[in-house]
Amino acid sequence: MVRKLVLLGTGLIGGSFALALKRAQQVAQVVGVGRSQANLERALELGVIDAASQDPAQAVQGADLVLIAAPVGQMQPLMQAIAPNLAGDCLVTDAGSTKRDVVGLYRAHLAAHLPACVPGHPIAGSDLSGAAAARYGLYEGRRVVLTPLPESAPEAIERLETLWRLCGAAVYRMSPEEHDSVFAAVSHVPHLVAFAYMNALLEHGNVAQCLDFAATGFRDFTRIAGSHPEMWRDIALANREAVLADLQRNVGQLQALIHLLEAGDAAGLTHYIERASSTRVAWEARTKGLSKP
Amino acid sequence: MVRKLVLLGTGLIGGSFALALKRAQQVAQVVGVGRSQANLERALELGVIDAASQDPAQAVQGADLVLIAAPVGQMQPLMQAIAPNLAGDCLVTDAGSTKRDVVGLYRAHLAAHLPACVPGHPIAGSDLSGAAAARYGLYEGRRVVLTPLPESAPEAIERLETLWRLCGAAVYRMSPEEHDSVFAAVSHVPHLVAFAYMNALLEHGNVAQCLDFAATGFRDFTRIAGSHPEMWRDIALANREAVLADLQRNVGQLQALIHLLEAGDAAGLTHYIERASSTRVAWEARTKGLSKP
């Protein structure tokens, strides 16, 4: 049971966590912190939070659980602000999409509190954002990756695992390095490739007509290109090393494809496309149950 | 009213055209031609076609409408085979995803029949294929692009437009060059970029774990990477010139992104992502009604 949950960032991720714990009757009070007064008012109206604040330091007083669900680029001042006011038993976690940099922030700003800190990443992305997007059941059947610190107390880790399981999630543990390499490959780089594709399309001489005839393939392929610029800039910078390695691999594969096309190499093209297609088809078959956001 | 419709290629595209005309009571008999006996039997069972044949030359005898709905790479032998047996009034069209090359095939193989030939492209892609995927309503609210020849008789074009409208589609006319440039940009290149992305992922040191944690963003972004290899090889080769120009633009944009990341240029990255994101968001707002396949 959580007495007082503070959301530092009251959007889809934090809001849906609060709603899930409320439905499970595992939280007495939820305080939402955010920069947008309009968004906080919406969260209050929707019953996502019970109280709102624009002052993180004040909000965390008396809290026994803090979820930092703000973009990674905003976490540093939040950690600095709350550090002096955290109760010793207050579990601090986050929902950052990158983990090596966030682990560095915990070490730098919450050094005295590390046994109660457990970095995490719920895998429930969406192009939607804001408190109005929060919903019950967002985490049902989803995965949550925790990247505990060597200092994290086993009881803190277990408490957080239990809470995420109450939200319906399956909980995994990884090292921060492993996490960042995996999510660069299957999340961060797809977003960046989709942004690059949209920008390449904008260089087309007839972009208005192109967009006019874009259909369902385009729709799905570019859905993530509509994602939040500030958030994805921060993720790309935070996970720069792993992201750059994957982007280089993408450039290399595009250049290989260009060479096959220039050579008119039908057999090579078949092989190239079959490798990609069979991997995707096999993945689809394995993950049939994966729900849409 | 169509007396005898012959589908050269009895899959999603041809089958759904036949079903739509049947429901509109606009066709008396549908003959399906295909290479796979099992697929033709399935089409007969499902009532998509009334008779099956593996001989295109024989099948088109007495036909007043032929839809070539086979992959573009298979169209040449089909046109050659049917040319001697076409009735003078038999309207011939196709559903090829590229048009410059298909127009060339009409000229080369159906030179005596051009007034009754109207190349076309129904925009209703899907990663599904085969007669079992055919369904009523596939073309409801979809677009069909016709690229008539200078020789195409106005009555032939109008007759085909009427039939596609009876299927629920909106009909547009373009030049073959315009068509190929637009669809390279919004259809062919997204598929190729998705294939390249999958192949880059296969170079990751830990691909099994990556695929294990791939979520909904990955799912949508790579859906088209599961598409039919033979079909997309043919499209890429057929539309090579336009496709290569777009692929080069994608490589250029990825390299620009890599430079921004290497330089840690946060402002440049924000601008880069905002341009892509705002374009995608505006497109989404304009096309809200676009249905899923």
UniProtKB/TrEMBL annotation, chains A, B:
Pfam families, A to Z: PDH_C, PDH_N
SUPFAM superfamilies reported for this sequence: 6-phosphogluconate dehydrogenase C-terminal domain-like, NAD(P)-binding Rossmann-fold domains
Organism of derivation: Chitiniphilus purpureus
PROSITE patterns in the cross-refs: PDH_ADH
Annotated ranges, domain Prephenate/arogenate dehydrogenase: 3-291
Protein name: Prephenate dehydrogenase/arogenate dehydrogenase family protein
Swiss-Prot/TrEMBL keywords: Oxidoreductase
Residues that span the membrane, as ranges: none
InterPro entries: 6-PGluconate_DH-like_C_sf (IPR008927), NAD(P)-bd_dom_sf (IPR036291), PDH_C (IPR046825), PDH_N (IPR046826), Preph/Arog_dehydrog (IPR050812), Prephen_DH (IPR003099)
Presence of keyword Oxidoreductase: yes
